[in-house]
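pinging the channel bc i need a second pair of eyes. not urgent but kinda urgent?? the chain im working w is below, pasted from the shared doc
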Amino acid sequence: MPTCLIVDDSKVIRMVAKKIVVELGFEPVEAADGQQALDACKNSLPDAVLLDWNMPVMDGIQFLIELRKLPGGTAPKVVFCTTENDLGHIQKAIESGADEYIMKPFDSEIVQAKFSQVGLL
């Protein structure tokens, strides 16, 4: 079963995302900040990452930059899920290695569409 790393400091968002990715056939792995997520990726790279931008310890952009440096770190498909919706943030996310970008709040249809666009479904 493919894995999806859900990285968000909000337990509620992780819970909602977990339900969605399970419905899409992914095994969820959770991290509350970028450092926890990076540690998880060093142990086992996920197939997909749903990534928040604003988190304590290490934010989403810093995590993404570090992920892409890991051996095999270019393989996971990374979808930013954030409230940061201006063009500058979206451009920075894509330049840092994100594959797609969705706005909070999100639902199952949006996640499914983005996962399809990046070739996960």
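so The chain is about 45% helix and 20% strand. and The longest helix spans residues 11-23. — does that match what u expected or am i reading it wrong
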